[in-house]
TrEMBL record:
Natural source organism: Roseiarcus fermentans
Cellular component, GO, one term: plasma membrane
Domain of life: Bacteria
Entry protein name: Putative PurR-regulated permease PerM
Location relative to the cell: Cell membrane
Length: 369
């Protein structure tokens, strides 16, 4: 079979697989989470195997230890998070009103002091009038409040959400356990399916994909933990209301590049302004916690834990986030970076094949033959 036909065949297979996943929807979520968890914990199982344990015993020890640590963390952290979340939802309207008033008062003062002449020159006095500013801020706050309330209702309401949560808790560990036990046999079976003519090349691609995924998933998981601890503990120590909740939100969303830190920055600044006004001491303390956390993550934590394993330019990374988010929503944002890393590896190899083909070489290929 020619290379072109093989490419078409495997493209159709991948397309059919993607369409099947689309039809199944959230049904595959606990299974995908179990596979990801097994992939994450497999190196630990391998280390225990090298110490003399068999695969079954090593998988049981690692999975039980992980489940125990997760359960203890949930028991300790969940009550605090629930209490802070309830308090935040109750105080959110008051925070929004106070932020709106502060923005209106200070914005009017600053625009009159520094921009008055420019506003009159450009004929924008009507757009910068107090009534217009208040209307714009009111619309922005009401839209933000509506989005937040709808998001919270979507998370906590409906039988499907409850069923999905419990299916994650029950099915994911079971899938991860079988993945850990059968990992080597699965790899051997998949290796046996590879086309014989291209087996070595496909193995090379698989090793590069494994390097990219392992570097990102395992490294970024530790980065998320660092962000949650740094922001949660730091904001709590400076006395910021809901500091622990903001830190956990930042850690959870840090699996999506830029999003976790940005959300934490906006929330911490908003809460510090409302809580500490008219003093700016709390604002600068919260800003110091956020900036120092970003500096450590960008210059110490991420380079050592994640490094350049993903191999994506920042522009392409942002494009992947926007594209996958537009196509698949929040789930798309979560899988954007690893999916883009896989696509990047495949594209680099396809470009290599193209540059070695007559389509690229042209007359040079004829001269070689």
């Amino acid at each position: 079979m020619s290379v072109e036909r093989q490419v078409v065949f495997w493209a159709l297979v991948l397309g059919a697989f993607g369409f099947a996943l689309h039809l199944l929807g959230s049904t595959v979520t606990p299974f995908a989470a179990g596979i990801a968890l097994g992939y994450l914990l497999d190196p630990l199982v391998g280390r225990l195997e090298r110490l003399g344990l068999n695969r079954l015993g090593a998988a049981l020890i690692i999975l039980v230890a992980f489940a125990t640590a997760f359960a203890l963390a949930l028991i300790v952290v969940a009550p605090i998070l629930i209490n802070e979340l309830i308090a935040f939802v109750q105080k959110f309207p008051g925070y929004a009103v106070k932020l709106q008033a502060l923005a209106l008062e200070e914005g009017a003062t600053l625009s009159k002091k520094y921009l008055g002449g420019w506003i009159d020159t450009l004929g924008l006095r009507a757009q910068f009038s107090p009534d217009q500013i208040q209307k714009s801020l009111g619309d922005f706050v009401s839209q933000g409040a509506t989005w937040l309330i709808n998001a919270l209702q979507g998370l906590v309401s409906g039988g499907a959400a409850v069923f999905g949560f419990f299916s994650l808790l029950v099915i994911t560990p079971v899938v991860a356990f079988y993945i850990l036990i059968d990992w080597e046999r699965m790899l051997a079976a998949i290796d046996g399916w590879l086309p014989l003519d291209h087996r070595d090349h496909l193995r090379k691609i698989a090793r590069e994909i494994d390097h990219a995924l392992a570097g990102f998933i395992r490294g970024q998981s530790l980065v998320c933990l660092f962000d949650a601890l740094w922001y949660g503990i730091g904001l709590t120590l400076i006395g910021l209301d809901f500091g622990f909740l903001i830190g956990v939100i930042a850690g959870f969303l840090s699996f999506i590049p830029y999003v976790g830190s940005l959300v934490a920055l906006v929330l911490s600044i908003a809460v510090s302004l409302v809580q500490g006004w008219p003093s700016l001491k709390l604002f600068f303390l919260a800003l110091a916690v956020m900036v120092s956390g970003q500096f450590l993550e960008g210059n110490v934590i991420s380079p050592n834990l994640v490094g350049g394993s993903v191999g994506l330019h920042p522009v392409w990374l942002m494009f992947a986030l926007l594209a996958f988010g537009q196509l698949f929503g929040f789930v798309g944002l979560v899988v954007a970076v690893p999916a883009a890393a896989v696509i990047g590896v495949i594209v680099r190899h396809l470009i290599g094949l193209y540059r070695a083909s007559p389509f690229y070489l042209g007359r040079a290929a004829e001269e070689r033959t």
